[in-house]
Amino acid sequence: MSRDVQQYFFLTVIFSYLLSPMNLLAAETNISCYELMSSLQSSSSMVYGLTQGHKDQVVELIQRNFSNSSDLEHKKLIRNEVRGSLGDPRYQKLMTKWYKDGWVKFFIAKDHDRDKVLGVIGLYADKKDFEDAFWITSLAVSEEARGMGIGKRLMSFAEDYTQSRGKKFLRLHTSDEEYMKSAQGLYESQGYKIKAKFPQLIDGKNTGHTTFLRQKKL
Q1: Alpha carbon 179 to chain centroid, angstroms
Q2: To pair with 63 at 20 to 30 A between CA atoms, which of 1, 18, 165, 180?
Q3: How much is the pTM?
Q4: CATH number of the domain to which 187 belongs
């Protein structure tokens, strides 16, 4: 084999490795390729780490999903969470205050042809149980993409990711508000059982709704 052919073959192998979906996803999410191996071979393989280019779409999608929520502060929190997860220094103190080491990440499912975000899920580490669990936040799917299994795919990815970090549980808070009804069915079908119920409080006031703590053992 000539020297030129050897060099061509070597470069082809290197570029194929660097541009593979697994390595591109690892670069976007700062996760090792080893951690992503199992999830990329599953139905969650079209999920990507949030980047600056999709930040505004994600904020809009989540806030639209919570448009019927009575908690206006939650909508503000969503914007701050997304920006803080991408390293915006204006929100780093808040991230550290809210989460263990300020750890929160968002992952998206998108339409590649239109570069449009179709769904999003967030994960964060709570200071109380960070050694055993991650928590889901702001799971949302666009109206046009509902019924396509994107919510399940995002949750499958979240479970794979959580397990890859050595966690035993995935948890979330939800409520009995009308706009959350369809989500309740999704969580139940995916094995997230209600572990506790308590009154929903906003600014110390009882809203009349119930908050559920759901959990799945991985």
Answers
A1: 20
A2: 165
A3: 0.76
A4: 3.40.630.30
